[in-house]
Amino acid sequence: MGRKPLDIEKIALQLIMNDDLTTKKKLANKISIIAYKKGIYLSSIHELYMARGRGEYSGFTVPAINLRSMTYDLAKAIFRVAKINNSGTFIFEIAKSEMGYTNQVPLEYSSVILAAAIKEGFRGPVFIQGDHFQVNAKKFKEDQEKELAGLKALISDAIEAGFYNIDIDSSTVVDLAETDIKKQQYWNYEVCSKLTQFIRQIQPRGVEVSVGGEIGEVGSKNSTPEDLRAFMLGFRERLRKGRTGISKISIQTGTSHGGVVLPDGTVAQVKLDFDTLKNLSEVARKEYGLAGAVQHGASTLPQEAFHKFAECETAEVHLATEFQNMIYESRHFPADLKTKIYEWLKINAASEKKEGETEEQFIYKTRKKALGPFKKEIMGLPQSTRDTIAAEIEQKFDFLFKQLNAVNNKNLADKYITLKRVIIRKHKDKEAVVHDGEGAD
């Protein structure tokens, strides 16, 4: 009799439900081994983006999707959409802040996504990204080295977990009090160059991590070509000679994370400046060889806006809050669990309620904070319930892939992304990331 095949779904759920990091690592290793045997590789999108910067392809925008809850179920839905649409250019990402309030450490996030790829029979590169690895401006002002040390520790954990795409967000330390634009951007490019060099020092041999910079904090003033040029001039001056720089640049065009919430709890429609997006994408490509500009905070935009991203040659668009909203608002999400979550928020997030804010605004703004504390209860829902909710959101994924024209491009991913097996080996009681050949099983 042959061996009974491993139940990948069971392993993934065990990993999600287990709080012990040692156990998580063992389960993650099992998933990783199966993934390599199936031809699934955690990869960097860097070379693909550099090819766009050289003008070798155009016409679509890469969706970068943050999964805050039901990660395994929604990742399966994304892989199904990718297979149906013959897409190879899509990114799974999670922000520094999201890791905390959703209770998803990098190792869990990447492993669960690999498990979803295995379950759905996907093959090829899988891109996982650290989104908004952000400098806390207040803490940076108090103690620069301590704040940077914390970010370096996070970057190390992320790369070890297979996050070969990292967005550095030091736009928080842009100083608009300065009149000179380069001086405004000084701490931004200074920090971004330091962290880029750190990434280059620790990245696995044979893997060039895709690094993104940011010149405009989401929710602040719109970015300009002058901002971009000032940042890039300083960044290139500060980056050590011979080091590879960034592959894309995030800008501000009028959006905010999660959207602007009205008193009734609905989201106000935002006028996004597509001219800024188009112009800065062109400057980024033609003058600096980058893939283009990146748009944050876009998931709650009106549906008719999404086709414009590809038309403006936007390199990448970040999508998060709407999928969380769809989970909560699904008629299949148990009403009693939602009531329990909202009551928990009224107690545990009470300090975040602002004067004059309606209860609907408060709940909308804070309900993401409940996804970690209630992760096990949500993932403990019957499989049929989770499948039904995921199927609803799958339609949205399909719509977005088509609107962004991120379809029929798997050949590009195969052309530019060299599959490399990267494994973690223990050496003298220390773990080290090593390269273990190309295209290995």
Describe the structure.
- Helix 1 runs antiparallel to helix 2.
- The chain is built from 19 helices and 11 strands.
- Strand 7, helix 12 and strand 8 form a beta-alpha-beta unit.
- It is an alpha/beta fold and about 450 residues long.
- It has one domain: Aldolase class I (TIM Barrel, Alpha-Beta Barrel).
- It is globular, with a radius of gyration of 21 Å.
- An 8-stranded parallel β-barrel has the order 2-3-4-5-6-7-8-9, surrounded by 6 helices. Strands 10-11 form a two-stranded antiparallel sheet.
Helix content: 40-55%
Q: What share of residues are in beta strands? A: 5-15%
Number of domains: 1
Our measurement of the CA-to-CA distance between the termini, rounded to an integer number of angstroms, reads 25 Å
**In CATH, what is the class?**
Alpha Beta
Query: Which structural class fits the helix and strand makeup?
Result: alpha/beta
Quick rundown:
The chain is an alpha/beta fold and 441 residues long. It has 19 helices and 11 strands.
List its salient traits.
TIM Barrel, 441 residues, single chain, alpha/beta
How are the elements arranged and paired?
Layout: H1 8-17, H2 21-37, E1 40-43, H3 46-53, E2 62-66, H4 71-84, E3 91-95, H5 96-101, H6 106-120, E4 124-134, H7 137-142, H8 144-160, E5 165-169, H9 181-184, H10 186-202, E6 210-214, H11 225-238, E7 248-251, H12 274-288, E8 293-295, H13 307-311, E9 316-319, H14 321-329, H15 335-348, H16 359-366, H17 375-379, H18 383-403, H19 410-416, E10 420-427, E11 430-438
Parallel strand pairs: 1-4, 2-3, 2-9, 3-4, 4-5, 5-6, 6-7, 7-8, 8-9
Antiparallel strand pairs: 10-11
